[in-house]
């Protein structure tokens, strides 16, 4: 698909003169216990690549999402999230995963994420969270260079691949749906369905079975239709570049009281788990696509029409200057 971003008249003229005449229509993985999120540590994000070479590759996550430069893609149809409502024959286990995150592991009936431009069906494996010690520092992805207090990752593996572990090293083996949380003065009662059981997972590797709830309760109402999409990696070791990322355009509320429940969990050294996010990675030429139409975005057909018109103006201007 060809898309164009409108900037200034000058950039349009330059682009038109050059190409107008030719226009033709996690995931957080889990590499083990030899890493942490402390940027000052030799086991922190700046040194992950030493033991996990993929962490130093060129298509890493998380990234900043510049909403004005995201390219509208009509091929990104609505996601089919109907399985997220299923609770029968589904078991949920709440886990303090190696002192790195709070995770809800799914077992039982297979649930799938479909549509939305994904190359197949993706089976749900788990969801987990990333947070920080302060209100403005906790999410992994940024929107327009702003962090948010927390981020949810819903991890799936491709249906044709046997397990999430095997899918993690395969191209497009994983699909992760991410949701950013905004601070609210009031509690989000839907989050409490999980937070009420945090006393059972305070220490690293503790787990407890919890009553099954609908995953849609953790999502914004527009989750299936308004989102951003890019190709990236696991945001923790081994950082395999196998993830199709989908980031919800709208937010979910969380209170400071609820954030403090996450911060009460313990890390591997039995200290408070305050910081569980990787720093922003370089985009390195990747394109962020979106389902959102914007006045700054043109479709492929409109792009070609505009370029051809500008090319004609360039030609007229050139002939005029030659003659006079």
Give a written overview of the molecule.
GO terms for molecular function: carbonate dehydratase activity; zinc ion binding. Its cofactor is Zn(2+). It is an enzyme of class 4 (lyase). The protein has 324 residues and is an alpha+beta fold. The chain is built from six helices and 17 strands. Strands 3, 4, 5, 6, 7, 8, 10, 11, 12, 13, 14, 15 and 16 form a 13-stranded mixed beta sheet that branches. Strands 1-17 form a two-stranded antiparallel ribbon. Helix 1 (9-19) packs across helix 6. It is globular, with a radius of gyration of 22 Å.
Which structural category do the helix and sheet elements fall into?
alpha+beta
Oligomer: single chain
Helix content: 10-25%
Give the topology string: H per helix, E per strand.
EHHEEEEEEEEEHEHEEEEHEEH
Give the tally of β-strands.
17
Shape: globular
Distance between the termini: 41 Å
List keywords for this structure.
13-stranded mixed beta sheet; two-stranded antiparallel sheet; 17% helix; globular; disordered N terminus; lyase
SSE topology sketch:
Layout lengths: L3 E2 L3 H11 L28 H4 L12 E2 L5 E2 L6 E2 L9 E8 L3 E8 L3 E4 L6 E10 L10 E2 L6 E9 L5 H4 L6 E11 L7 H4 L11 E4 L16 E6 L10 E6 L3 E4 H8 L25 E2 L6 E2 L1 H24 L1
Parallel strand pairs: 2-9, 3-16, 11-14, 11-15
Antiparallel strand pairs: 1-17, 4-7, 5-6, 5-12, 6-8, 7-8, 8-10, 10-11, 13-14, 13-16
Helix pairs in contact: 1-6
Summarize the structure.
The protein is 17% helix and 26% strand. With 324 residues, it is of the alpha+beta class. The N terminus is likely disordered.
């Amino acid at each position: 698909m060809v898309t164009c971003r409108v900037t200034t008249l000058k950039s349009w003229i330059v682009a038109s003169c050059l190409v107008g005449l030719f226009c033709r229509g996690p995931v957080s993985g889990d590499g083990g216990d030899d890493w942490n999120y402390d940027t000052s540590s030799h086991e922190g994000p700046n040194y992950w690549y030493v033991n996990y070479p993929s962490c130093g590759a060129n298509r890493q996550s998380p990234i900043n999402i510049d909403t004005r430069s995201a390219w509208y893609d009509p091929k990104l149809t609505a996601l089919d999230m109907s399985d997220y409502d299923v609770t029968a024959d589904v078991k949920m286990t709440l886990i303090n995963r190696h002192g790195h995150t709070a995770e809800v592991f799914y077992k039982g009936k297979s649930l799938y994420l479909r549509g939305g431009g994904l190359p197949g069906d993706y089976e749900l494996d788990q969801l987990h969270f990333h947070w920080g010690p302060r209100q403005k520092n906790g999410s992994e992805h940024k929107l327009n260079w702003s962090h948010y207090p927390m981020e949810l990752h819903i991890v799936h593996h491709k249906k044709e691949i046997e397990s999430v572990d095997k899918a993690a090293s395969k191209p497009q083996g994983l699909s992760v749906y991410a949701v950013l949380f905004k601070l609210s003065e009031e509690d989000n009662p839907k989050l409490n369905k999980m937070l009420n059981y945090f006393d059972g997972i305070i220490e690293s590797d503790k787990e407890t079975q919890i009553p099954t709830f609908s995953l849609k309760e953790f999502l914004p109402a527009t989750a299936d239709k308004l989102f951003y999409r890019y190709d990236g990696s696991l945001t923790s070791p081994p950082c395999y570049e196998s993830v199709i990322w989908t980031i919800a355009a709208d937010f979910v509320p969380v209170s400071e009281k609820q954030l403090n429940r996450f911060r009460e969990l313990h890390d591997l050294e039995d200290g408070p788990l305050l910081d569980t996010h990787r720093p922003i990675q370089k985009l390195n030429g990747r394109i962020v696509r979106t389902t959102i139409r914007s006045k700054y975005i043109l479709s492929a057909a409109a792009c070609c029409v505009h370029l051809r018109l500008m090319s004609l103006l360039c030609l007229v201007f050139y002939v005029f200057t030659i003659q006079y």
